[in-house]
Structures are given as C-alpha cells and as structure tokens.
C-alpha cells in the first residue's frame, strides 16, 4: 500500500524516507509554512491531499471544496429548476441535459482548490446560481468575489447584509478558509455550518414574526408568507395553509367565502392571479407583499390620512429590499 501510494504521485519509495512521508501526511495543507510546502515538490502536496490525516497522524475529514451531500443537493435543485421552465414536450430532453450538467458539476467540483478557481469556471458558477433560483445573467463575478470574501460569522459582513440571503447560503455551502483556499471539512457535530445558519435564520424570522405580529396581525401574515414562499411548489401548497390562503385572497381582493369552493376551483384562481415560479424570487415576493400590505390596510380600515401604514412600511422602504423598521427589529433580536 505504501509503495502503491507513493508510486501514484510519481515518488520512488527507495529514494524517500518514511519519516519524510510521515511528516508530509501530517502537514497542515491550509498553512503555507507547513512542512509539505518546504519541500518545493508538488508530488508531496499531491500525496498529502490524497489522504486524510491530522497533525497527530489520526484520521480526519477530507479536503474538499464542498461536502458530497451538498453537491448532491445542489445537483438535485438544478435539475428541478431547469425543468420548471420546460414545456411537457421538452421535459425529457431537458431532464437528460440537466442530469449531464449535474454529473459534470459533480466531477468538476472535486478538482476545485480555491475560490478563484471556482469563480474562474463560469459554467460551474452558473450551475450553482440556477440551482438557487438565481439568474446568472444578473450576477457578476466581481459581486460573487465580495460574497465569498465575507466573514459569514460577522452579521455586518457584505454577504450577511445583502437583502437576498441566497448568496450567503451559497458561500456557506462551500469549504474555503479565510485565504480562499480549500479547507478540510469541519468535524461533524450535531449540526454542520449550513444547518446552523438555517436554524439561526429560521429562529430570527419567526421571532420577528412574533414581535411584529403582536402589534399588527397583517405584519405576521406577510412575514410568514415571505418565509414560506420559497417552499411553495403549487397552488395547493397555498390552499392547504390557512395563513398563506389569507394572504393570497387579501392581495387580490378575493372574498373569504372563496374558501368554501371546491379545492380544484380555488387552485384555478391561484394559478390565474399568481405565477408560482415567481415565489422563488425574493424581489417578486417583496413586490407581491407590498400589494398585500396596501390591500390589508384597506380591508381593515387603515386610514391613509393617519400616515403611512407600519405594514406598508415593512415592504416599501430602503432600496436594499428591506425596510428600516425591519432592520431595527432584527437588530433588537440579535442584541438579545
């Protein structure tokens, strides 16, 4: 096994001491000053990358740009995303091509060693963006450089302050160190980093719903819809949820008695007034909730003469896509 491993990278076992190989395998590949780099021979780096040992020679996690489970998840999301826009006649051909694209991504990601390598491969970048429901034509490489350079543990970093949280999620799904180089996967505890971020985000969102909803039920409905929008795949997902249904009927000024209609007939109304695929776009969801806010205030007797509605303020504020009042609420929650 020893001779085979060294031969695989072009090293002659007779010309290399076992002490050197041991030191190489125990080197920290994320540290440019570690032993393996002092040898000035890329064959030793290759050897170290091929195994998963820590500084004490014990088994550790692999050195990969992305967790294999996350690679599969992104591949699945990509296939689903491209199939959404295909007609019934196109479905088979589109699915076959999407699966080929997914296979190419899975093979290519294994060879990525840094953020710069990833961003230099625009085909891979576009694959990731499509999987997250984003339009690649609207996302520049320079913008993504700023996202990946952000400290995701700092709530004030560039990625964490952007209105579209999907970009921070993309950065969190990769395994690069502070220098932008591939790092070893974190030891798996109760939660991986991306799972921790999801839990924190969900807690923040639901706390915000509760806090804002105590003074205005409409705010709670709007924030709830905003949180659930990305998971809505059909009209029936809306109709199966009392709160989502209320937001839909209020937004389009439909009577509450509509809920007594046969479910299939209700679904036709949802598809008539709303494009389900738009709910994966935060900007379009925000626009829809701006309309809901205005209609809710009219329905519940909010007088325009009394000043701007706090509900309308929530979805018509700053140019960043989230209002100052929402930022204030989030800031208060984070301080506790």
Molecular structure report:
This protein has three domains: 2-49, no CATH class; 68-188, no CATH class; 194-335, AGR_C_984p-like, CATH 1.10.3700. Residues 303-308 and 317-336 have low confidence and may be disordered. The protein is built from 19 helices and no strands. It has helices spanning 2-8, 18-25, 35-38, 42-49, 68-84, 91-109, 115-120, 122-131, 141-148, 158-161, 166-172, 193-213, 217-228, 235-239, 242-251, 263-273, 282-299, 310-315, 324-335. α5 (68-84) packs antiparallel against α6 (91-109). The protein starts with a helix and ends with a helix. It is 57% helix and 0% strand. It is elongated. With 336 residues, the chain is an all-alpha fold.
Attribute tags:
336 residues; AGR_C_984p-like; mainly alpha
Summarize it.
With 336 residues, the chain is an all-alpha fold. It has 3 domains: 2-49, no CATH class; 68-188, no CATH class; 194-335, Orthogonal Bundle (AGR_C_984p-like). The chain is built from 19 helices and no strands.
